[in-house]
Amino acid sequence: MSPEPSRPPANRNLTVLLSLTIGVLVGLVVVAFILLTGRLAARMYPAGGSPWRRLLIPLAGSLGTGVLLSRYFPNARGSGIPQTKFALFINNGYISLKTVVGKFICCSASLASGIALGREGPSVQIGAGIASVLGRRFGLSPEQVKPLVPVGCSAALAAAFNTPIAAVLFSLEEILGDMHAPVLGTTVIASAASWMVLHLILGDQPLFHTPAYQLVHPAEFGVYAILGVAGGLASVWFVKLLLAIRKIFLTLPKRTQWAQPAVGGLAVGVMGWFMPQVLGVGYDFVDIVLGGDFVLKTVLALAILKLIATPVCYGTGNAGGIFGPSLFIGAMVGGAVGSVAHTLFPGLTAGPGAYALVGMGACFAGIVRTPMTSVIMIFEMTRDYSIIVPLMIANMIAFIISQKLQEEPIYEALALQEGVFLPTGESRDELAGVRVAQIMRTGPEPLPPDLDLATAIHRLEEMGRNAWPVGDTRHLSGVVALRDLHEAKAPRSHLADVIAGEAAFPYVHPDHPLSLALERMGSAGVDTLPVVSRANIRQSYGVVTLPDILAAYGVEKAARDGTHAS
Amino acid sequence: MPPRIGLIASVLASAAALWTADLFLARTERAEVRAEARHAAEQGGQLLASGHPAEAVEALRKAQALDRGNTGYALQLAEALLAAGKLDEAGTTLAAVLEASPNDGRANLLEARLMVRRGEPNQAEAYYHRAIFGIWPGNSQVQRIRVRLELANLLASIKSNQELIAELIPLEDEARRDPAVLGQVAHLYAAAGAPDRAVAAYRALIRQDPGDARNYAGLGEAELALGNYREAQSAFQNAVRRGADAGPRLELAARLLNLDPTPRSLTTAAKFARATEILEMARDALARCPAAPGAPKLLAGADAALAAKIRGPVTNEMAEARLAAAQTLWESRGPGCPAGPGDEALSLIMKKLAE
After folding, report:
1. In principle, which of A62, A283, A537, B230 could form an S-S bond with A261, CB 3.0–4.6 Å?
2. Which CATH architecture has domain A12-427?
3. Mean pLDDT across A141-163
4. What is the ipTM for the molecules in this complex?
């Protein structure tokens, strides 16, 4: 949410036309991205090629993209989903053309070289970027560009996964966090346009080809529930490992950034030396597993390897997403569970292919935390309705386990590691109603840290406040309370002595509702809170005070009216 | 906001450029993927032909995954899966093809073979018929004959003689100019218990190719089954003359000619003598089956009849009585009786007498 004044929304006809244009353009770009990546990969790994390629190409690919990412396209690193959300919630929907081009080039090279990441997340950022660039070129204001970002996302996902309905759902469920968002119509238009482009160029082929599945016995629901548990646990492992590795690599010196992806490239190369299926997105092997023809040992080994390879590749800063790997891992986990179940109870259970399919949904729901999108996506990918109920059971179980054992969703956690506070699902609900941005004061400066305590007490009493931010607008040190100043004893003589270094302090963001500001004031015992950037909580936009909040709720006026009445 | 012509033009130009690039990439991909699929399919076909169905399945699975629109690869895969004994997967693969093209001749043929492997010959028969009347690429007549012949062999193996003859009649008509098929048709006629049709088919074949010893041998067998021992002897003589190893059959035909009690030209004495020999042979055959119900009593009766002194000239009735006794003894043999040296001749005589 930007503190700057907003312009009226764009003309409805223009918005519809732009959405259509975005859909077509994004569809064309994403199809090019998929085809280019595929053709490059085919040339990197020709049939009957030497095993040395599997070791050297990922290493070379990650080194090359590492240089490009660190020198030219720093915003093209990673999946693309958190970056898209940064753009939407922090940068007024701004994604540069350079980032779009960088994402396209780096991800094509990275994925073609066998890095164990996916192509869908990057597609989403590319789509959102095209929407953002196009909106700006058409002269739209930041407020008008922002709603185009989810439009680009849905167009990209529709083409990348060949799932137009799930693409719309994903944009609303994950990117916006609001299933009733007013952009529903435009996301549908863009998704449909993009999907049509995909079909015109590549024909009518689902992403995965599955035989017809059926529920053999009601007892199978129990096995699907077990699969949900397995998928949930695998998801938690995946997310925790990825975050842990990312955290380690974020602490390394910046000058090593260009070489960091090579660690992931080397790791996946070594794994690929022994099991080539671990390289790249791996959808070909998923297709085989869905067909039910595999060896239990192989799928188990691949599930474990991919559960390590993808977090390492992502954590070391390679370009690529986690959608594809989560589907791959899910298929392997599901295939393994299904294989064991079918061996033990052949008369009661379907073939392992059905379980692989449900496993894909379960891991997607557990890792990405979008259960609705997951169900619809698997349905659209396979066009098999008979699997919906088991899919819903396994998805919900995996989702709940993941939520319990890994509180922070992956994209929010990744953003947090970058120092960005993205609104979570819960916090989005709180955004309803009047926002802090509408009543905040942008004028008052924080108290300087070198101010002596007596003067500070005097200034606070003069303003009639019991607390005030300390520092400067670009770097807040904290919030000082009047009671702390009164209790401070010698040798403390300046505010800097009272404010403890980089300690946490109460704050609100501009898009927070007033109710949350009141809650935070109450728990901290202060009547003033700094309003800070989501990208950097030390950067101050202004302050919000208790009387202003009360005034916004009409309390002050009522009190005054009451006084007059009495 | 006023539309900017330059911007719109650049968007349209970008879209056109992307469209062209996408089409180029898609065409390249399609060509490369199809070439790879073709290579895998060829490899699979060779593996299947060389008796490595499991390896063929892998190669063909790859071919099918690469080019899903190619029904030929799916059918090749189904064939390999059948050969590898993976019946469920073969069924799934075929179901997908049949759903899309229910009249595909090859798909129906493979489904019929699948049903045979699953022990469901009635279902198989239905799919064979769909295959016969289905759509085939190229020369469909040749394919239809091949399928009908396969169905005929199935019917012969399950002794479904009426249905077999019903298939052989149109097949004989369709394959009139194909000696190889006509030879099989003639053989199957004989197996179906229609030796007269077999004889006609073999004679037609001999007219087409008088030098083929196999046709004479087949004709000899059919004539034997019909009880035409002289014609059979003649046919076997022709077969031997053309290099066939039909000596034993020729001897059998000669033996039958000397044993046959039915020719009208025989004198009563000669008929009686042959009837006596037949009764002795039947007694010996039953003697090899002492466990047969009523065997001792029947054998005692036969011995007594054979030992009884003949007073006065033999009559036709006496010969008929001995033949009737021989038939009783022959029919009393239970299953599993050890075969004797003259059993085949006796069997053919008994069959002729029964008719």
Report:
1. A62
2. Orthogonal Bundle (1.10)
3. 90
4. 0.74
